[in-house]
Amino acid sequence: MDVSFIIPHKGREEMLLKTLRSIQGLHYDLARVEILLISQNEGNSRELDELVNELSVKLIRITDGRTISALRNLGVEGAQGQYLAFLDADVKLSANWLEVMLTTLRRPNTVLAAAHQVNSSEAPSLERIRTALSNAVLDCAVTFLPGRNLCLSRHDFERIGGFPEHLITCEDYYFTERASRLGELYYTSEACYVHLGEDKEYTKMFRKEIWRGQSNLASIKGRTIPLREWPSFIVPIGLLILLGIASVGTIFGQWLIALWSLMLFSLPVVVYSLRLKRLVGASVPLTSVFKFYGLFFPARALGTLSGALKEVKTSSHNE
């Protein structure tokens, strides 16, 4: 067996069906490929059952609420492939995806490969922003790769030590940092994928970013933090503090303090927004870019604080 596709799944089937069909459409001999679906759903629709049978998918059903890392590691235990391809259950691969991944992994000192993201048809501004951020650098070695589409050898996966099962989110930061200790992470434009589940509405994005931020601090433990990551921890918390100071200043009539706090709050939002505007070009209006960071930073701060409080409670309980 050449390659094992490992796909954790929970909830929406319509996107999973598109993911599986994109694997079915790969320019590769599917007899040399296996698909392991680790599902947290209690059952399947008839359409999914038919496709699972058609592709000879190995279905592993888990209903005990394990983390996505635990599901991926469980999939590896049942996999037979020389190479492991980790996919989220909401991505649509280009037909050349697997060929390009295997070719990329033959580069000297390359440990991990991933394809670049492309927009869906009629993508709204928020999706275009997310895609542009994902593709800030291409066709080079990078310091981080998102966990939506990853490919590496089984040997290197075992050397990395698997995915961190203690993390609810941010597991891809932890995993890819460990991989970077062994060799290069390569992000290529030769193949692509559509993130079907990409954020498209700002309200939902705000809630998701709170959830995503809950493992920010926990993900630091056991890995080296590159300099470029530090702002993602410091800026959101700093901005939330400034908003709090501005609110208190307004309540007590300290207008100068409130004004300075709001000005300091605006500074990183403006700087990050201008950088992002260069990435998205004319496809996204500047107002949408400002709206993105105006929501992103506070949400990440709330998520980080929520995760820190949960960790304190857990530590206290264990004592």
Automatic annotation (TrEMBL):
Its EC number is 2.4.-.-. It comes from the Bacteria. Gene3D superfamilies: Spore Coat Polysaccharide Biosynthesis Protein SpsA, Chain A (3.90.550.10). Pfam families: Glycos_transf_2 (PF00535). It is found in: Cell membrane. The chain crosses the membrane at residues 230-249, 255-274. Residues 4-121 form the Glycosyltransferase 2-like domain. Its main location: membrane. GO terms for molecular function: glycosyltransferase activity. Keywords: Cell membrane, Glycosyltransferase, Membrane, Transferase, Transmembrane, Transmembrane helix. This is Glycosyltransferase. It comes from Neiella holothuriorum.
